[in-house]
Amino acid sequence: MLDLYDRKILALLQRNAEMPVAEIAAEIGLTTTPCWRRIRKLEERGYFKRRVALLDEEKLNVGVSVFMAIRTNQHSRAWSSAFVKATEEIPEIVDIFRLAGEIDYMLRVVVPDIATFDRVYQRLIQKVEIHDVSSMFAMETIKSSTELPLDYA
């Protein structure tokens, strides 16, 4: 169970994983050593999946986000494995969610333009049979966050 200090540490590190321990300690009202121990304990308990740099899509020329709603008529383990393998081989596919309901999978694809998206789409359907695909192009990103809510921990 997380206490208030742990939640504050996680909140700060979600915003900036490079924040020095001394700054975190000062921000939350602890001295450096106990703060460092808490961070280590949180790491050991698996609260951090990994520490990454969030890159700028526009600067990397992948500013177009496309959401692919995929329906399949095959729900076998073999098809699912082939689908996962196929998507892992396409770096433009950055998020994949298996859903309950009418849509089986939702993918987010980042590309520079529609023509590149079409090439990604063609690569995917060559690797795995898909019953139905509906693609939606994001016009504007209103909110995008990697910060998780901590009130439920």
Q: What are its keywords?
A:
alpha+beta; four-stranded antiparallel beta sheet; 39% helix
Overview of this protein structure:
This protein has 5 helices and 4 strands. By secondary structure, it is of the alpha+beta class. The protein has a 4-stranded antiparallel β-sheet. Strand 2 and strand 3 form a beta hairpin. Helix 1 (4-15) crosses helix 3 (32-44) and helix 2 (21-28) packs across helix 3. The longest helix has 14 residues, at 114-127. It starts with a helix and ends in a 16-residue tail after the last strand.
List the helices and strands and how they pair.
Layout (H helix, E strand, L loop, with lengths): L3 H12 L5 H8 L3 H13 L19 E8 L5 H12 L4 E6 L6 E7 L2 H14 L4 E6 L16
Antiparallel strand pairs: 1-3, 1-4, 2-3
Helix pairs in contact: 1-3, 2-3
Organism: Alloyangia mangrovi
Protein name: Lrp/AsnC family transcriptional regulator
Pfam family, one: HTH_24
